[in-house]
Amino acid sequence: MKNIFKIYKKDLVKIFTNWVALVVVIGLIILPSLYAWFNIKSSWDPYGNTKGIKVAIVNEDTGASYKDKNINVGDELVNELKKNDNLGWNFVTSEEAKYGVERGEYFASITIPKDFSQDIISLTSKDIKRPDLVYTVNEAANAIAPKITDKGVETLKQNVDSTIVKTVNGIIFKIFNEIGFGYINERPKIQDAVKLLYNLNDNSDKIGDLINKAYNGTITVNQMIDKVNAIVPSLEKTLNNADNVLNSSETFLNNSKQAINKISPMVKEDLGLAKKFIDGTLTISDSIESNVDKDTIIKNLSLIKDRLNSANNIVSTLSNLLNNINQNGKLDGTIGKLNNLKDRINNTMNVINSIENTLNGNGVINAADIQQLKTKLKNVSSGINEILNSYDSTILPKINESMDSLITLANNGEETIQKTKEALPKVKETLGLLKKGTALSNTELKKLKDNYPEMQKSLSKIVGKIKEVDKGDNVDSILSLLTNNWESESNFLGNPVNIKENRLFKIPNYGSAMSPFYTTLSLWVGGLILVSILTVSVKGIDKEKENIKPHEVFFGKYLTFISIGILQGFVVTMGDIFILKTYVLNKFGFVLLGMFISLVFITIIYSIVSVFGNIGKAICIIFLVLQVAASGGTFPVQVMSGFFKGINPFLPFKYAIDGMRYLVAGGVQDLFMKDLAILAALIIPCIVIGAILKKPLNKASEKFIKKLAESEIVEH
């Protein structure tokens, strides 16, 4: 023990009594920090500055027409992109885009073809054609930029998918509304006219009696006219409005039939959309089973919830739609299946919420929790598949039956209106004589008297027919189908959920998020620099004369190396916090952990180099390369190839980075303590191996080192 401290003391004296040595040591302490600080600062917020990534947008869409509505999805996308500054969108011609991408002025280009809108509305026809976006990327310009532009084009595609659903279904819903609300707006005027006709019919006997009295001379013509007007005010206006009643009702019923015919295919399309959302949850759930990273699990659970919410919204709206058109309970079974599917989705959401609560409470989920979730998701999937599989054979005929009932109602109404329109002229001709007043001749009065009984029968028939058309339950059953909020119904299909973002263990910027990796990397690099510049052997002391044993040399120099290494850890972590001002939740713990990690790394590196010499340095460099690639400091381990996944649990970097992440952002304390325990456990075997093997391995390698020195190409 005495010789160990003698060696350590000698190194300290040499450092502090030789100003060059002191400057070199200070440089060794600071140099690793510069490596970390420059890398952290340069990557402080790269994804917040992506507006510098230029992407050319070429809009050649000529638009399309659907149900007399002009559509240009390309223009809508361009307008949305102009509001979006996530990337540097440049709106150019196709020639400018091609020239710019080839020469690196733009990292990528996206072309919206001329038939884009036309292809989108093909969804409403039998000949469906998928719309294309032409994405061209210059992958030679930069390694990362194409990945960012890939994300940009994927976002654009999602906007297109949303627009397709909103455009097609939105137009259908809007047409329904225009039909329904158009009739509703006119209905008060129509009802006023109808009431007058009803009043005229109810008082037709009184009017007939007045006409007879005027003909017999009991009363004058003027007295007759006054009394008729008192019974039925605005008779002429009433008769003219009758035409409006019939024409408006006929138009409404005709348009209703056209709208109703659109419902069946729309139901199946929306069920297919719900199935896509549900199938997506199964794919995501597969990645949870083998994933031990808490943050990733929570993120995947959130994605599953988003898709389930989207599916649930679609199912709810379809259930409401079918309720509106359900005639005589024919669709009760289908509505029941949709409601059952909603219950399955809600039960699955409850399981996800329970798992999230467990994770947020620093608990650990087990295989049973994951299996329960997967079982629930499969139940949801089987539910939607059951509905879709029986759609054409069972559900569609019942929907069509309900549609046929509504169309039959509309047809009967149209037939009634047509017959009424045929009879109305005779009523108008007869009663029109009354408007002449005192100018009414005896001949015309006789004609009025003779024709009135037949006209009275026609009027009674007309009113009866109008009452059939105007029967509240019948008309309202069609109106309830047509007058839903078209904007909300189409918007929910295009944007089924609003994502409520919940960032667990939030880190405000990318640089702070990367500080655990770059700090850890700099400490290993610092250790490599130390063994490259400082010697691991004792000089200036006669080891034989002082009876200094190899293990004493090992521990004596070890104290020198770890002293400098701990200072390296102190400087780099303090600089992260106070110079770069990286976000660190537990600053004191972060500094202490940096010093401890440096101690562990110096122990590993020093032990290997002390035992194996220059070969040990090469081993440590190889070890560095493997750790940078497989530690999970930049890309998640889960996306790496099998070899790197396999070696990940054996790398010190993994536990050092995870420990620092805990102190930077928070996390699960049990996992942090596990990381510390594994790092501490690495010290003991390194010291034991170094102390025991130093002598035999140094002796075995003497000839190798001597021969290498003879080449005069190495320093030591």
TrEMBL record:
It is a multi-pass membrane protein. One of its GO terms (cellular component) is membrane. The chain crosses the membrane at residues 12-38, 517-538, 558-584, 590-612, 619-644, 676-693. Gene3D superfamilies: abc type-2 transporter like domain. It holds the Pfam family ABC2_membrane_3. One of its GO terms (molecular function) is ABC-type transporter activity. This is ABC-2 family transporter protein. It comes from Clostridium thermobutyricum DSM 4928.
